[in-house]
Each structure stands twice: as structure tokens, then as C-alpha cells.
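anyone seen this seq b4? input:
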Amino acid sequence: MKEKNITIENCWVCSVHGSDIIPAFGDILINNNIIIKIRLKDFQLYRKNPGKVHKNSYNAFGRVVTLPLVNFHDHIYSRLAKGLPLSGKFNNFMDILHNLWWKLDKSLDHEMIAASAKMAAIESIRNGVTYIFDHHSSQNHIEESLGVIQNALNKFGLRAVLCFECTDRNGFADALKGLEENKNYAASISEGDFRAMLGLHASFTLSDDTLTEAAAIIKKNLDLGIHIHVAEDKADVDLSMKYTGYRPTKRLARFNLLNDKSILVHGVNLKKKDFPFIIDNAAALAFCFDSNMNNHVGIPDFNLIPQDIPFLIGTDGMHANIARSLRHAHLAARHQGFSFEQAANLIKKIYFDQLTFVRRYFPDFPSLIHEERADFIIWDYVPPTPLDKDNFWGHFIYGILEYPVNSVVHNGEFLMKNFQMLNCDENTIKNEILIQGERVVKEISKLNIN
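predicted toks r here
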């Protein structure tokens, strides 16, 4: 049974106030799912007696508390892609798509999708991610696939924005099925823990006919944004130009598919001429550095991308560790010649851009202040030097992000406490995942033979 009253004692509460994060030492008092008070305390008095524990409270022992992390581009369907019996070449991005991802998404059925979602949920919670923007693909099992993911994530108490990856690579009929799945899912949800987007694969696998149908859906439902890969590899740009005569960004703009709820993922091969289409339509760019490096497609150049564009961070399904991805964003900026101050300002921009964007889907995403929803994470980080407003980002980049998440509170309830998952039998779930993983291996093996 859910605890109605929770107190987190002796923590550094890193609340958002305008464009600043202001740490304060004290206790967080929760009633039901709302923070009813942040009780400030004298840190020096705590240091004299840090071990004192009150009944019905959790002693954080000086750890840092922040807002939860958000994964703005996940591929939950990718979770079982570990140690698969793959065949074919992997010399370039197109080879990787053909010989791994497009085989995998044809192999998945609803049971495998559910197992992937359970695995993603556990990984996400362990990494302090309680909000997921997912981009799903199961091209031989399209219908009701998003409902399967929702049901699995809901059992873990997570919130998510779901969509199906429409594509013409298996024919226009299947592209229409993908659009229908997006449309049906959007119509099925209400103001709860789940939202919808319109999923599209990438310009080079989408026909004009499909984009025309997608545009009609957006026109009828102005609350929908698109979720699409853009210029991840040079092939997306080159093939889009070859087939349609337009670069991906201009093509999306021509079909009126861009708006302020849209996520364009990767953007590695965007040029100066592309950015006005993104800026004019207030769309966001989601960066996935680990995936870009793994696929050898390069990484976005922060020197070229206008600051007017909202910056988000995703993992592209490689993992759920958004902290690692944020660190890589910082290191990429330093590698590209940013000063320490400029690189820190980039992370600050990403942090606040993400808050603005996630609230377009979940207006109640909190700021870690009283009278708001109790969503936060407790890092296993105890500041070794004084922590305040002026040095928070130094602690965040070089300290907090380097430490694991100790505990997760979501909607006023512990999902993980002291590294232990609650409300689920993790070992049983992992065995269920393995059973479906064995089935995936068999299906992939059949495709290799064919």
C-alpha cells in the first residue's frame, strides 16, 4: 500500500526558481503525492548529529535531491538487442539499419514488446528517469503495440509520451497502419500519465503520400507533435534530396509537420540552411551522443547550432543513463572548443530547455517546491565542498552526474529506495525478459537464413 505521508530528512533540495537552481538544506514533507513543505534546517547543526533518524522518515544523510531526469528519445523496442546472432555487413549506418534494427523490429510481437518495456522501466528508474519520450517500431505487429508499452510502463508508475515509427520501407500499406496506430493511441488516452506524439522514422524512408496523410492528422489534432530522426547520417540528407529534391527539414516544413511540440532527433548533418525551418516552427532538437559515436555518424557541432533552438537529450535506446548523456554533451562542447563557462552554460541551457519542453506535454512537471507534485531523485552524492546557487553547476557536472541514483520518488511514492526497486519482483521480471529474449534470438536467426 502506498505511503500517504513521506518525509525525506537531511538533504540538499535543489529547487528550480525561474532560471536558477537554488540548493537549500532541509527536509521534504510529502502528503499523498504533493510536497506540502520544504523545511529548512541549519546544516552545521545537522553535521553535529547526522545519524539521528525520526520515525516514518527517510534520512538522506546530506545527499543531493534534484528533479527527475527525462529521456527525450528512447527506443524501448531495442532493449533485447544484446548479443544477437547477427549476419551481414556493419560497415556504415545503412548496413546497421538493414542488418540489425530493421531485422529486430520485424521480429517483435506483443510479448517481446512488453518484455522490452519492463526492461526499459527498470533501467530508467535505476537511472533516475521517470519520464520517457519513446519512439517505437515493431513493423510486423503494429496494431495496439503502443497500448502494450503503456500497460507495462504503467505497472512501474512511470509517465511517458508514446508514438509509433511510421515508415514506407515495408510499403505504403504498412505506413498507413503505423499512422493509424498513432491516431488510435492518441484518441485512446486522457489526461493521465501518458501522452501521444506522431512517430515518423526519417525523411529518406517516408513517401510524400505518407507525409500528406501525417499532415492531415496533425491538422486535425493540433496538440500532436512529430517525433522523427533528422539528418542522423548523411544518407538521410542525400537520399531525401535524391528522392524528393528537398533536405529533410525543408521537406517537413513544406508539409506543415513542424510545431512547438515536435522533436527532431540527432541533427548531426544539419547545415545553416536547415535551422530557420526548425526555429520558425519552434521545434526542438534531441541529441543522442552515445548512439552517434557508436554508429560512427559524427556528433552535432554546438558551434553551428543556433541557441534559439530548444536542446533536449535522449539515449536512442542504447541505455537509460541520461546522466551519462549529459556528461557527453558537456565533453563534446569542451572538445569543440567551448570554454569551461560556455560548456557549463550549454548544460544549463539543456536543463532548462528540457523543463520547458516536457511541460508542453505534462504541465504539472514540478520545480521541486511546495504545493507541487512530488517527483524527484536522491543522488548518492554528498557534496564534498559547500553547495550553493553560485556553484551548483560545478557540482552538477563534475559531481552529481558522476554518481548513481540512490532513490527515486515519483508521484509521492518511492519507486526505488537505497538502490532497491520497490513494488516489483525484479528477479522474476528479469527471468520473464530472458524468455522473450530467447524468442527474439530465434526470430532473428530465421531472418538471417532468409
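The longest helix spans residues 426-449. The CA atoms of residues 428 and 434 lie 10 Å apart. kinda curious what u guys think
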